[in-house]
Design goal:
Blueprint lengths: L3 E6 L4 E8 L4 E8 L1 H4 L7 H23 L8 E7 L3 H17 L4 E5 H12 L6 E6 L4 E8 L2 E7 L5 H11 L6 H9 L24 H14 L4 H33 L5 E5 L6 H13 L3 E3 L10 H13 L23
Parallel strand pairs: 1-4, 4-5, 6-9, 9-10
Antiparallel strand pairs: 1-2, 2-3, 6-7, 7-8
Helix pairs in contact: 2-3, 4-10, 5-6, 5-7, 5-8, 6-8, 8-9
The chain binds 5'-O-[(R)-(carboxyoxy)(hydroxy)phosphoryl]adenosine and zinc ion.
């Protein structure tokens, strides 16, 4: 029988779980977003997140197993996001996964949340190692070479905010609601990307590091000057800001492609992962840039870009297949750089 892995995700503001099979089928997937819990604070409150995970985790897992039409004993392993993330939430997931694994005598796998994003495209697209990865989420923005499961080389990352953080903060300044990224994208579609001249912080510099803080400050200064914000103003600012983010990423990516091609002359896959990868303007730029450099571009479906259980279950499957399981001494990790997974 094909292997089945249960994946649990609770590292930020989504409680999620899923069952996936070795032959790349999603048997079930449930995502419960805590938006309503955090909305009135305009961002994620860690203590509220942890309590909400605790309340929902068991129920969602039961639902997921039922929807998949299986029993716990049919599973081949239990995988959980073991970090990086908000520690209270990660602890809830890790303890739950350990309990299930212990009760049903199953292998336990602690998945690095970023590895979950990094490997998602391999579930839905024909992506082979090695590939160049743009990992862009609420907490991270990095360019990496992915050589295999647990094998990463970081080409560069953000020196201040992540792209997702910048989206969320600008959305807050413009008072367009939480969650910021998707709302900002909707308004950007209605606005003029050339309405405001905003900085593209690292444009023209060598290397693959990103910066979004100066861009965010430029929006702050403009918004403070503008006084009352009309809908038209907000739409134009969203479009201009999004265009600057996309330009920043494109500039950094071009340097990354050159480094990747020098390291792997025969490889040609460009992959994106993480919540910001749901953004259509970003995806269009990546597609175009890949073509320009004769690369193949692969992105997971939009609903698998933002946090979900499928990405954890699939990364768990990849680790199970590589014989990389964990023991019960594993501790939830608030910080956990991807490159720490490298062996030897
Ligand atoms: O991967 P993710 O769900 O959680 C983390 O691991 O951080 O990413 C969440 C981030 C948030 O900052 C959110 O605003 C951003 O992804 N995001 C978007 C879009 N959808 C989600 N940013 C821009 N455009 C979107 N459509
Ligand atoms: Zn994430």
């Amino acid at each position: 029988m094909t292997k089945l892995v249960l994946g649990i995700e609770s590292s930020c503001d989504e409680t999620a779980c899923a069952v996936v099979s070795e032959d790349k089928k999603i048997l079930s997937s449930v995502v419960w977003s805590q938006y309503d819990e955090h909305r009135r604070f305009g961002g994620v409150v860690p203590e509220i997140a942890a309590r909400a995970h605790l309340e929902k985790c068991d129920l969602l897992i039961r639902e997921c197993i039922e929807k998949a039409g299986i029993k716990f004993s049919d599973l081949s392993a239990v995988a959980v996001a073991g970090g990086p993330g908000l520690i209270g939430g990660v602890l809830v997931g890790v303890m739950t996964a350990k309990a299930i694994a212990l009760c049903h005598n199953l292998p336990f796998i602690a998945v690095n949340h970023l590895e979950g994003h990094a490997l998602t495209a391999r579930l839905t697209e024909p992506v082979q190692f090695p590939y160049l990865l743009l990992l862009t989420s609420g907490g991270h923005c990095q360019l990496l070479e992915v050589m295999g499961v647990g094998q990463y080389k970081r080409l560069g990352g953000t020196i201040d905010d992540s792209a997702g953080e910048a989206f969320d903060k600008v959305a807050k300044m413009l008072e367009i609601g939480y969650p910021g990224g998707p709302n900002l994208e909707k308004r950007a579609k209605l606005g003029n990307p050339k309405a405001f001249k905003l900085p593209v912080p690292m444009k023209g510099r060598t290397g693959c590091d990103f910066s979004f803080s100066g861009l965010k400050t430029a929006v702050r200064v403009a918004v403070d000057k503008a006084g009352e914000l009309t809908d038209a103003y907000k739409n134009d600012m969203c479009a201009s800001f999004q265009a600057a983010v996309v330009a920043e990423v494109q500039d950094r990516l071009k340097n990354g492609i050159k480094l990747f091609k020098a390291d792997f002359p025969n490889a040609a896959d460009l992959v994106v992962g993480g919540g910001v990868a749901a953004n259509t303007a970003l995806r269009e730029m990546l597609e175009k840039t890949a073509k320009q450099y004769k690369m193949n571009f692969y992105a997971p479906p939009v609903k698998l870009c933002t946090d979900n259980g499928v990405m954890i279950a699939w990364a768990g499957m990849e680790r199970l297949n590589a014989d990389l399981t964990d023991d019960f001494t594993f501790r939830a990790r608030p910080r956990w750089p991807l490159t720490e997974l490298n062996q030897g």
